[in-house]
Write a structure and sequence with these properties.
globular; Porin; 18 strands; mainly beta
Length: 298
């Protein structure tokens, strides 16, 4: 009996990758691209299996396929796998793991639970957890960290209010980079800061507005504020503190020749004291214009 491959995808070569333990960053004009093999399977309804092996990754400042470095070293190999399962339409869970040679090993867990309250009301809980440990030569330094976040979002019609708490613990803070510039799937990883320093705890308040309810489909607004404290930063006696405020407006064209073309404006204000993990830019304002147009090539 032959196995069905209709719901199995195998990619080989240069590609964008989106796994909680290996995520390439496309937030610049020159995106990161990983070289390797990535397999995903959805043969069983509600179940997704994934596995991959990558041996190079490009940076966002150079064009070479193995140009991304961390501590002046390039990626040797990264083996990843994952499993995601939807128990019901409202409850799902996933587990992912990676082994990045001579850098670190990571494990990731996500649980997402939604509660419909009425036709236009719902409550959602999203839990994320990383456990990271250095591996082999520990090129990027010692790593022994647990990082988790819990977010609760209440939606009423066009309005969504989200509250989130995030905590980092262990002998070090969280670390990522050689495994992709977006490998941090937690609630308080925002435009500038990730709030992931050693012993850091952080809180977020967020508000989203979908203007479709008010007759403007495709237009949305978002604002959020994140504050973190209790940061243990080597070389500083003072407790590290940081905070960030973001505001964003996005419009997606709904029909016509430019359907799905989107325009997004983001603005961020970031501040930290001299002991903050982001002390190199403790006083920073950042504005970005992002234009995206998805193309179906195949």
């Amino acid at each position: 009996m032959k196995a069905r491959l209709s719901n199995t995808t195998l990619k080989y070569g240069n590609q964008f990758v989106g796994s909680p333990v290996f995520t390439t960053d496309d937030s610049r004009i020159l995106p990161e691209v990983a070289t390797g093999t990535y397999l995903t399977s959805t043969e069983i309804e509600g179940l997704e299996l994934s596995a991959g092996r990558f041996t190079a990754i490009s940076s966002q400042t150079e064009t070479g396929k193995d140009s991304l470095t961390q501590e002046d070293q390039t990626l040797k190999s990264a083996n990843i796998y994952g499993i995601s399962y939807s128990f019901t339409d409202n409850l799902s869970a996933s587990f992912h793991a990676s082994d990045v040679e001579d850098f670190w090993k990571k494990k990731y867990v996500n649980i997402n639970y939604g509660i419909p309250l009425a036709d236009d009301q719902s409550l959602n809980f999203d839990f994320n957890y990383y456990k990271s440990d250095d591996e082999g030569r520990a090129i990027a330094g010692e790593l022994q960290n647990k990082l988790w976040s819990l977010a609760s979002a209440y939606t009423l019609g066009a309005h969504t209010v989200t509250l989130a708490y995030q905590r980092s613990s262990g002998d070090t803070g969280y670390n990522y980079g050689i495994d992709g510039g977006s490998t941090i799937w937690v609630a308080n990883s925002v435009q500038i800061a990730d709030f992931m320093a050693k012993d850091e705890r952080s809180w977020q308040a967020r508000y989203d507005l979908d203007m479709e309810t008010y007759g403007v489909p495709g237009l949305s607004f978002m604002t959020r504020y994140v504050t973190g404290d209790n940061m243990d930063v080597e070389g500083f006696e003072e407790e590290g503190k940081e905070h960030e405020w973001n505001v964003e407006s996005k419009y997606v064209i709904q029909d016509g020749a430019a359907k799905d073309l989107s325009f997004r404006v983001r603005h961020s204000v970031y501040r930290s004291n001299d002991a903050g993990a982001e002390a190199s830019y403790s006083d920073r304002n950042d504005t970005r214009l992002i234009i995206e147009y998805p193309l179906d090539i195949i």
